[in-house]
Amino acid sequence: MTRPATPAIAVDAIIEMADRPGRPIVLIERRNPPHGWAIPGGFVDVGETLEAAVMREAKEETSLDVTLKCLLGIYSDPARDPRGHTVTPVYIAEAHGEPRAADDAASLELFDPHNCPALAFDHDVIISDYIEYRERGRLTPLRF
Amino acid sequence: MTRPATPAIAVDAIIEMADRPGRPIVLIERRNPPHGWAIPGGFVDVGETLEAAVMREAKEETSLDVTLKCLLGIYSDPARDPRGHTVTPVYIAEAHGEPRAADDAASLELFDPHNCPALAFDHDVIISDYIEYRERGRLTPLRF
């Protein structure tokens, strides 16, 4: 039975630090191209659910055990990843404790979502959607 | 730059017939394995957004021009598709007029969501989630 080629699938996690004032979020500085600041995440392995994948990637890059809160949205613009068409569901998660950069994260910092640095991929769009969620409760916008 | 193998990605549409009493939904009888009744949908092409893909697949299988309402959820259990691990975002859509089966749909019928036939894949779970949405407004459940 033939299966057609489809876009790659990755997952990202906006991790809120629940034990810090203002609930800042964790951003990483990427070790691999494309370089720059980004929301933690990575490719989904064949055989794992999205929920397992995003908790694994969050742990690998930030050393945090995260609790998933909800799905923010799915990002699928063919031009959003210079490495090739990648579809990325983005989850909102929370964590406690001390994040430490590892794996594809060369470093990490906590940011107020209104004061993020310039971001790789379409992560500025994702952060805008996240601010909409945080201020107005809006989730999973569709895009045409 | 290497890109790892990731699950295949497909999209499905729960299409509500907005001009019929009780807003019945469209199910198709699949022409290709796995056979049986199913929610319309299919694999995403490289280079198209999920929103474009689900409107294309709905049109190909039901001949309807659908309007997307919202994302119901994303289904990613590795065992959900006997052809191999497939991640499927499911959208809720609405349409007017007369559906006609085409492409991978050998036939189609309209159903009250509470009285669907046995369904292929994990589509019974998806219909249960859809009933939760329709009766209680709940969207995008996470699964662990």
Q: Describe it for me?
A:
Chain A is an alpha+beta fold and 144 residues long. Chain A has a single domain, classed as Nucleoside Triphosphate Pyrophosphohydrolase, CATH 3.90.79. Chain A has two helices and seven strands. In chain A, strands 4-1-6-5 form a four-stranded mixed β-sheet, with helices on both faces. The radius of gyration of chain A is 15 Å and the shape is globular. The model of chain A has no long low-confidence stretch (mean pLDDT 96).
How would a textbook summarize the main sheet of chain A?
4 strands, mixed
Give the total of beta strands of chain A: 7
Numbering strands along the chain, what is their spatial order in the largest sheet of chain A? Answer: 4-1-6-5
CATH topology of chain A, what is it called?
A: Nucleoside Triphosphate Pyrophosphohydrolase
Biggest interface between protein chains, with counts per chain? A-B, 39 and 39 residues
Shape of chain A: globular
Whole-number total of structural domains of chain A: 1
Q: So how many helices of chain A?
A: 2
Radius of gyration of chain A: 15 Å
Quick recap:
The structure is a homodimer of 144-residue chains. With 144 residues, chain A is α+β, with helices and mostly antiparallel strands.
Which features characterize this protein?
3-stranded antiparallel beta sheet; Nucleoside Triphosphate Pyrophosphohydrolase; homodimer; 2 helices; alpha+beta; 144 residues
